Amino acid sequence: MLRAPRPNPRLLNWFYGFTPPERGAVLLRHRRVYIVPTRLGWMFAATLGLLLLGSINYALALGFVLAFALAGIGLAGMVHTARNLALLSVSAGRAEPVFAGEAAQFRLYLENRARFDRPAILLRHLASGAQLVVHVPAGALTEAVLAVPAARRGRLALGRVMLETRFPLGWYRSWSYIEPDAGCVVYPRPERAPLPPAGLHAGTGAARALGSGNDDFSGLRGYQRSDSPRHMAWKVFARSDNLLTKQFSGDAATELWLEWEQLPAGLDTEARLSRLAGWVLAAERTGARYGLRLPGQDIAPARGDAHCTACLQALALFGTP
Amino acid sequence: MTTLLPAAHPLAPELRAVGGRELAGLILALLLVAAPHALRAPWWVTLLTLGLYAWRAAALLNHWPLPRRTLLLLITMAAVLAIWLQYRMLFGRVPGIVLLVLFSGLKLLETRTHRDAAVVAFVCCFLLITNFLYSQSIPTALLMVAALAAITVTLVGCSAPGRPLRANLRSSALLLAHAAPAALVLFLLFPRVPGPMWGLPQDAQSGVTGLSDTMSPGNVSELAQSDALVFRAEFAGAIPSPRQRYWRGPVLWDFDGRNWRAGPALLIEPPPAPQGGRNYRYAMLLEPHQRNWLFALETPAQRPANANFTVDRQLVSVLPVRSRLRYDMVSVADGHTEVHEREALLRRALRLPDDYNPRAMALAAEWRRDARDAEDLLLRAVGYFRNAKFSYTLEPPLLGRDAVDEFLFVTRSGFCEHFASAFAYLMRAAGVPARVVTGYLGGDPNPIDGILTVRQSDAHAWVEVHLAGRGWTRVDPTAAAVPGRLDFGLARSVPAGAGLPLLMRPQLEWLRGLRHSWEALVHQWNLRVLGYNPERQREFMSWLGVEGADWRDLAVALAAALGAIALLLLAWSLRRRARPDPVQSAWQSFCRKLASRGVERWPHEGPRDYSERAAQRMPGASDPIRHIAALYVELRYGRERPPERIGELAQCVRVLRLA
C-alpha cells in the first residue's frame, strides 16, 4: 500500500512555530497566524478584475477610482483579518474528570490585551470537531468551553485546537493552531452490575446482601458530610438537634473489597475496569466502606468523595504510564 | 464509541443567515447605486425594481417567507422578455444595465445568507461602474463614496453578527481610512492603457449632443438651449477679446438646398502658419463628443499629437474623442489663409443645387451685375444683412422647400445657421467661393481661475469667402444683422427670457458667482482626476525624478509603494499591543522574583496556593508575600480597582527582598 511520507515532526513544529504541548499562556505571534483568501475573497478578486477591465476599456477614470478603492479595502482587510487573531493570548484551564462516553469540558481562556475587540473567533478542536464562536471584548478575558467527547478511559490530552477568524470582511480566513498542555482524566465507563459479596472471594458464588452487614448497631458518632442519610440517627436529631450517625459493628460484613481477581477470568482489561468502576459507584451509594485491589495497587477501605475519586482515578489510569 | 461527524463550519458565509441590520444596509446601498439608473431606465423597470426592494424590506419587517425559486424565475423570464421587446436586444449597453438593475432586485429577494449578501454587494459595484458611463462628476463620486461606505458596513456587519452598530461603524471607518493610501497609490501609478481594448457596443455612447457634420435649419438653435460643457481653454497670457473668440469646428462645403454637409475630410501636411496676427498659446480640455474633430481658436497654427489638419484647416483627431482630451495649441488671430487655394476646392465652394431659391438667385445676380469686384460685392451683402431688419431668435419658424428665400424675404427671423446658410448661398450664387464654418463663438472666462468655458449654447455658424489676394476671409452675417451677439453673447441678443438656459439669464448674477467657484472646482476635478491619463502619469513620474517612465518603471514604483503601505499597516497592527495591565505586570515581576529563589509557580497553581507555598519556603519574607498575594487577588478578581491600591501593589513588589 502506498502511503504518503510522514513529515518530520520537528520540521512540522518549526513550520507551525511552536513545539507542543505548550505550557502556560500562548501568545499568537504573527509568525504563527496564517491567512488565505476565502471563496468570497476570490469572488471579490474576480469582481475587481472585471471592474478594472471595464474601466480601461471605457476609459472611466472614476471606474479606476472604484476598482482601486476596492483593492485598497482588500489590502487593508487582509491586515485587519490577521490582526483580529494575532497577539491574542490563550491559556487552558482545568478540565473536570468525566466518564468515558461523556464529553470532557475543556476550558480555554482567551485574553485580549489590545484596545480593540476581537469579534467572531472560532475555536475548533481538530480531533473531534467540537467548536464554538466567541467574541473577545477589548482588554477582556473570555472563557470558552470546548466539549470534547471522551471515548476511552485514561488521560485525555486536549490536542490541537484551531483558532480562526474571517472578520471584518469575510474575504480572508486567518487561522492559527495551538496545542495547550491541558488534559482531563477519563474514568472507565461504569458498568451497572450487582456488587460482589462482602468478604468473600470471587468464584464462590455465595450471595449475601451487603445491607445485612449494617444490622449490628454498635453506637453513635458525629455526622460527617459523606455519611449516607440512611444511617443518620433521625430520632436523636428530632430530640436534641444533634446530627449523629449510627455505627454498625462487624468489619467483615461492612468492609467490602472490590478486587480485580474477583472478576471472571474471561473478561478483558477494559471490561474489568468498567465493572470495577460500576462497583465503586454502587458501593459509594450504599455508604459502605470499600477498598480497591488492583494488580500492584491497593487502596485501603474508606468512603466519601475523595476516596471514590481516588479509586476511579486509579481505575482510569490503570496500566498507563 | 461515539464519533462526531465534522460539524458545519460556523464561519462559512453560505451557512450564516444575514441579519436584519445588514439587509437594511444592503437595501440602502442598492438604493444609492440604482437611483441614477432608475432615472434613466424605462418607468416600468424602475417601478418593478423598487417594488422588489420594497418586497424584501417588507419580508424583513414582517418575517414573511421569501418567494420560491420558481416564482423568481418566472419574474426573471418575464422581465427579460419585456426588456427584449423594448430594446430588441439584451447585450447592448442600455439593456444590459437595465437587466443588471432588475437582477439586483431579484437577487435581493433570495438573499438569505452572508454569501448572498456579498453577491448583492458585488452587484452594487457593477451598478456603480455602469453609472460612470453616463456621469463622472463630483456628485457621482460622492455617491460612490457613500455607497462604498454602506457596502463596507454591511460586509463588516455580516462578519460579526450581533456586534453593536457603533463598533461596526468604527471598524468600517478604520478599514476605509487604511484603504485610502493604497487606492491613491494605485490611482497614480497603475500603468494606464490608452483607448479601448475591444470594440464598444453600438450604443456605447448614445445621447451625447453637440455639433455634427451636417447643418440644417434649426439644429444649431437646438444646441443653444443646452448648458452642457464643450471644452475649457486655459490661456497662457492674454485672453482674446470676445470678438475674437471664434472656435473653429467642422467646415461644411456641400449644400443640397436644405442641408449643409462637410463631405469627405481631406488630410494634408500641416499648412504654413498664418502671418500677421497675434499669437495665443493655450491648453484645451475637450469633453468627449465621440467625433474626430478638435476645436481650436481661429486660426490654428499647429496640430496636437495624434491629430491632422484637413484641407480646410480643421483639426481632426486620429481616434474619436471618447474621453476627455487635453491638448496644447497655438493660434493666430486675424490671419488670412490659403491665398492660393486649389482650383478644385474653389470650384467646390461655388457649387449650388439647381432650381432652388429663385428670389435669392435673382438678388445675387443683381449684386454681381452692380459690384465692381468681389470685395465690393461682399460689402453690399453685409450691408444688406445689416439693414434688412432681421430678428434673432432661438425659436425660428419652420421653413419650406426654398428655405433661403423664405428666410430672406418672408420670415426674416432665425438663428445663426439661417444667417450663415443664406449668406453662403448668396455668395456662391454671386460667384464668390464660400463655405460654412460651424463651431462656437464666445466663452465665459471664470473670474476665479481665468479659464474660459465654452458650452453648447455658444454654438455658432459663420461663413468664409475666398477673396483674391486675401485668401479665406471670415464673414459673420449674424454679427452683421445682430451686432450685440458678438460683444455681449447670446444672452443679450435674443429677447428676454426667450428659452435661454437658466444660468445665462442676466438677472441671476449672484448665482453666476456661485457657479464660477463650482466650475473652478469642476475644472480641477476634470483635469486632475478624470483627465489623469498616460501622459499625466509620465509627468507625475518625471516630477518624482523618473524621466520617460514606461509601464515597467510604473510597475516597479507601484510594487514598491504598495509594499511599503502593507509593511506600514503590518507595523501598525503590531504596534497596537496595549501596554500590559499594571496589576498583571506587578504580579509577573513578583513571580519572577520568587522563581529566582527556586519557588516557581506551577501552571495551575492559583495566587493563594502559590503565595502560601512561597511563604512557607521563605519564612523571613512571609508577611510581604502574603500581603502582595492578597492585594493581587483583590485587584484582579475584586469589583473595584482603586489606583492607589495598584500603586501599593507595585511598590510592595519593588521593595520585596528575599533572603
Q: What keywords describe this structure?
A:
heterodimer, A: 321 residues, alpha+beta, Immunoglobulin-like, five-stranded antiparallel β-sheet, 29% helix, elongated, B: 659 residues, 19 strands, 49% helix
Q: How many DSSP E strands of chain B?
A: 19
Number of individual domains of chain A:
2
Low-confidence stretches of chain B: 1-5, 199-207
What is the molecular shape of chain B?
elongated
Largest interface, C-beta within 8 A? A-B, 71 and 82 residues
- Content of β-strand of chain A: 25-35%
Q: What's the N-to-C terminus distance of chain B?
A: 56 Å
CATH class group of the largest domain in chain A:
Mainly Beta
What's the alpha carbon Rg of chain B, rounded to whole Å? Answer: 38 Å
Structure description:
The complex is a heterodimer of chains A (321) and B (659). With 321 residues, chain A is an alpha+beta fold. Chain A has 2 domains: 11-186, Immunoglobulin-like (Sandwich); 210-316, no CATH class. In chain A, 29% of the residues lie in helices and 30% in strands. Chain A contains 7 helices and 17 strands. Chain A has helices at 9-16, 39-58, 61-85, 234-240, 251-254, 269-286, 305-316, and strands spanning 26-27, 34-37, 88-92, 98-99, 103-112, 118-125, 131-136, 141-149, 154-157, 161-165, 172-178, 183-187, 217-222, 244-248, 255-259, 289-294, 297-302. In chain A, helix 2 runs antiparallel to helix 3 (61-85) and helix 6 packs antiparallel against helix 7 (305-316). Chain A starts with 8 loop residues before the first helix and ends in a 5-residue tail after the last helix. With 659 residues, chain B is of the alpha+beta class. Chain B has a 5-stranded antiparallel β-sheet, covered by helices on one side. A 5-stranded antiparallel β-sheet of chain B has the order 9-3-15-18-19. A 4-stranded antiparallel β-sheet of chain B has the order 6-10-11-8, with no helix packed on it. The radius of gyration of chain B is 38 Å and the shape is elongated. Classes of the chains: A alpha+beta (321), B alpha+beta (659). Chains A and B meet through helix 2, helix 3, strand 6 and strand 7 of A and helix 5, helix 6, helix 7 and helix 18 of B.
